[in-house]
Design a protein that fits this description.
With 195 residues, the protein is mainly alpha-helical. Helices cover 75% and strands 0% of the residues. It has 9 helices and no strands. The longest helix has 23 residues.
Length: 195
């Protein structure tokens, strides 16, 4: 990844490149977009593009990193020592809020790279969260005899599918209905399994 400059002008130029990338991504597939297309849309030279990104894959890596970092920052606001239901309910609300705030980026990346590295990174993030929660509960003295990796894989996959449904949906979900669905499908089931 090209090292990024921090001046206001550099930030505006980077944003211009990213905006063009997402604009094009919303109308074409990733493989149909070239660096020249991005430059033409952003009204910049190829030299300017290459001052910020190595290629279009570098833009994707940059955006993926931003999404994961942003999601992690939001998730860190939820205190892990909360009661089980409260913790996951709040975490889910934070994730939904983050997705809604960044829906254009997240939707463009998820719909274009459904089977790729971006989805794997998000699912891995969710799996790590479940894994840490199980370990915290074990450290607090709870006897959990179920296979940790199977439980983590199952619930991370389920959460990923809920997130995909939220992102890809053309009409917005009712937040209360979505939260209730998440509680019943994930939180209540997860709690029953680990007890």
């Amino acid at each position: 990844m090209v090292e990024r400059k921090e001046t206001k002008q550099a930030q505006r130029t980077r944003k211009l490149i990213l905006d063009s990338f997402f604009k094009l991504l919303s109308t074409r597939g990733y493989n149909e977009i070239s660096v020249l297309d991005i430059c033409d849309d952003a009204l910049i030279s190829r030299g300017t593009f290459y001052a910020y990104f190595e290629d279009k894959a570098d833009i994707l890596n940059f955006c993926t990193h931003e999404i994961i970092t942003g999601l992690d920052s939001k998730a860190m606001t939820v205190l892990t020592k909360k009661e089980f239901h409260a913790y996951y309910q709040e975490l889910f609300e934070v994730v939904v809020e983050y997705i809604e705030e960044n829906k254009v980026k997240v939707k463009a990346i998820f719909t274009n790279f459904e089977n790729g590295a971006v989805m794997s990174l998000v699912e891995q993030y969710l799996a790590n969260n479940f894994r840490h929660r199980i370990r915290d509960l074990r450290n607090d003295g709870m006897d959990i005899s179920i296979n940790e990796e199977l439980v983590v894989t199952y619930f991370a996959g389920g959460c990923m599918n809920l997130i995909k449904a939220l992102v890809i949906a053309d009409k917005p979900y009712d937040k209360a209905q979505l939260a209730e669905c998440f509680k019943k499908l994930v939180v209540d089931t997860f709690e029953r399994i680990i007890k």
